[in-house]
Structures are given as structure tokens and as C-alpha cells.
Design goal:
Radius of gyration: 15 Å
Family: Belongs to the thioester dehydratase family. FabZ subfamily.
Helix content: 10-25%
CATH architecture: Roll
Keywords: Cytoplasm, Lipid A biosynthesis, Lipid biosynthesis, Lipid metabolism, Lyase
Number of domains: 1
Enzyme class: lyase
EC number: 4.2.1.59
Number of strands: 6
Number of helices: 2
Strand content: 35-45%
CATH class: Alpha Beta
Strand order of the largest sheet: 1-2-4-5-6-3
CATH topology: Thiol Ester Dehydrase, Chain A
GO molecular function, one term: (3R)-hydroxyacyl-[acyl-carrier-protein] dehydratase activity
Length: about 150
């Protein structure tokens, strides 16, 4: 897709694009995207998240690795919407993360806004910059590399 189409995707549409399901689906809505360029998505963080039972019971904080996973899932949606190939039988897998920084804790009740920008794409590899914000403040950032793989090759 080379057009500059912009759209909003709800949870039903996201379920059709990502293989993740509860409790590991970490994108609730896509606010905006431009194929081949960028995406803005949202994860609404609630006290009902299963990870808050142990991280940490008295001071619940969203684990940083799950913030990275939420960014990766948003990036996966961007990849799917940026290609003409079917997602049927494919998985989007992390191959690396660089310059990972956690700037602000994420708590129950926060709305995590996920921004991913495509840096480059070559063959099956996609490199993106991801930034997660809460109330306009940077909570986490990273450069992420992922590969699109066929399920039967795994």
C-alpha cells in the first residue's frame, strides 16, 4: 500500500490483524496510521490486568517489558497495514531492541499512547522507533527490529 490512507481500527479489527489474545493482547484501539510510515494506538491500563497481582501488589506498576510488547504489537499492526501480503499463517517476531529507556512508571488507570514510526524495511525485517506516552509525558522508548515469519517455518 502506497496510499496515505488514514483510518481508525477498533478492537474487532485489531483481532483480525494480530494473533494475540487475552491476556496478551496489549492494543485496544488504533487512533491513526499512515501505511509505510507511522501508527498511533492506545492501551488502556486497568487494575484488572493479571500482571498487577504480582508487579507489585502494594504499588502496581506495568512491567516495562509489557510496554515494549504493546509498542511491538502496534508496530505489527503498522507492518500488516503497510504490506499487500496476507497475515494468514504469519507471525511478527522481535529480533532486537536497542536504546530502550523507561522514563515514567505506568499505573492502573493510565492511558498508554503508543507511537511507532517505520525507520526502514528490507525483505522480512522491519525497524521502527517506538515511544509510549502517558498524559503527554514520555513513559518509554526504544528502537525495535522484528521479522515477519511463516508459522510453518517455526
Amino acid at each position: 500500500m502506497n496510499d496515505k490512507a488514514k483510518s481508525i481500527l477498533d478492537i474487532r479489527q485489531i483481532l483480525g490483524l494480530l494473533p494475540h489474545r487475552y491476556p496478551f493482547l496489549l492494543v485496544d484501539r488504533v487512533l491513526d496510521y499512515t501505511p509505510g510510515e507511522c501508527i498511533t494506538a492506545v492501551k488502556n491500563v486497568t487494575m484488572n490486568e493479571p500482571f498487577f497481582q504480582g508487579h507489585f501488589p502494594d504499588v502496581p506498576v506495568m512491567p516495562g517489558v509489557l510496554i515494549m510488547e504493546a509498542l511491538a504489537q502496534a508496530g505489527g499492526i503498522l507492518v500488516v497495514k503497510s504490506t499487500d501480503t496476507s497475515v494468514e499463517g504469519k507471525l511478527f517476531l522481535f529480533t532486537g531492541m536497542e536504546r530502550v529507556r523507561f522514563r515514567k512508571p505506568v499505573y492502573p488507570g493510565d492511558r498508554l499512547e503508543l507511537h511507532c514510526r517505520l525507520l526502514r524495511h528490507k525483505l522480512k525485517l522491519w525497524k521502527m522507533e517506538g515511544k509510549a506516552y502517558v498524559d503527554g509525558q514520555l513513559a518509554a522508548e526504544a528502537e525495535m527490529t522484528a521479522a515477519v515469519m511463516n508459522r510453518e517455518d517455526m
